[in-house]
Amino acid sequence: MNRIIKYITISFLSISMVSCDSFLNVDVPDNLIHEEFWSNKDQVDAALNGLYTSLHNNLERFHAWGDVRSSLYKPGSNFSSSYRQFLSHDIYPENHLVSWSPVYISITWINSFLKNAPSTLERDDTFKDSDLQIMMGEARALRALNYFYLVRAFKEVPIVDTPYESDTQEINTAASSEEDVLDFIEADLAVALEKTAESFDNVNLQYGRFTKNAVRALWADVKLWRNQYQEVLDLTERLDQQYKNSMVAPLDWFTIFNPGNSSESIFEYQYVQTGLGSPLYNWFSQGQRGDARFLANITNISVNAGELLYPPIDDKHFSADTIRLKNFSAFMLDPRFETSNGTGYEVYKFTGQTAYQLSYRPAGSRNANYIFYRYREILFMQAEALAMLGRYSEAESRINIIREHTDLPQIEAGGLSDGVDFMNFLLMEREFELGFEGKEWFAAVRVSRRSGYENILIEKASNNSALGDSYQVIRARLLEPEAWFLPYHETEIETNQMLEQKDYYKNK
To answer: Where does the record place a coiled coil (predicted)?
Structure first.
């Protein structure tokens, strides 16, 4: 194997910007000559940029794992059978979307960075330890993010904390318990919060790299998954201080998505016109060809949205803002959006240039950022935590902040009841604000795993099938909570001798 391949592998192709397919075909380096690669600060910078680039290569999986099983989605014309399994809640181990291999490639390269980047200090006198420590914090946060997607999707997953640096090295690792993986994530986040930068002067770095606020947002999400509600509030208190007076005005809401990096942003994957192409456009744009992969599920909209709660802004236009009525940022119902499964709404917020006018970004637009965290999601996290602590009036106040910034009526004190009724409403509010941003299945699973809330996910999915599957069929497929998580891909079982398929999926 030649040295160019070795070193490009370590830097995650951050300079050469190749396609996802060719990226995944690059071999893992064998017997790396560390002193030749980790010799100066520029190479460490390139390696760190590569770790961020790896997020792009995993977005398809992250999005499928975290969102596509929610009742938001309907097939577009460019829809595959792999995604159809997700919508029908009938997923098989051979489905390529459940392969975690690209994510573990990212993790092992992060491990290599954590092991080898410090050695550069001995070889480059201009490389400051303070700069290295910030980078090490970011690498820890990126590893935590990758593992958080894995544990929410699969529950039990292998923990790999050493780099894969030789063709002859074998990594056969049993799946660790969910609690052990979450402990590992939190250990990384504790280091990351200490080491990462408070901010960056460059706007693309400020929202495109892990800062302390981005670490706090991710850690609060982890705490909410673990049902540690007071810790959620403690971690997000600092976020309130920065963002509560920086929310965009109601009529400026579309700037959150175009151009992105709004004053509410916490962490976004950055796309620029000359770099890697954003997948969002091809996922959601009908454009002139009508070939979107995903449309918005009208069944979900009609079941969950009423004009009393989500009044239209006028008689002429559906809102293109997800929380302002019923079309999840669709601009209009259009004959082009007819599919074999009926009609759906186009998801416009990632593909349009402005609200209330059918004006698309240039075809194949590369610069639609992928939003991992923004402040309104933090408010929903707080509302969920407060409700679980029985502090419903405070939870309502968080939702009302969002409604105030979308010109929606305020919720009256006590107007949402409590318990299951409140959580059903909260999930609906989340969908209409955060729809198609990648985590609404995770949110439904998180809530439904709590005692007394088990039926929320099952009822929601069973009533809102985008494929027209009957209530009884979907309910039967989801009665076992193990079905809320994914199977291990058949290839992973074959290559990792210590990994055993989950009982629920053994006969599939």
So the answer is: none
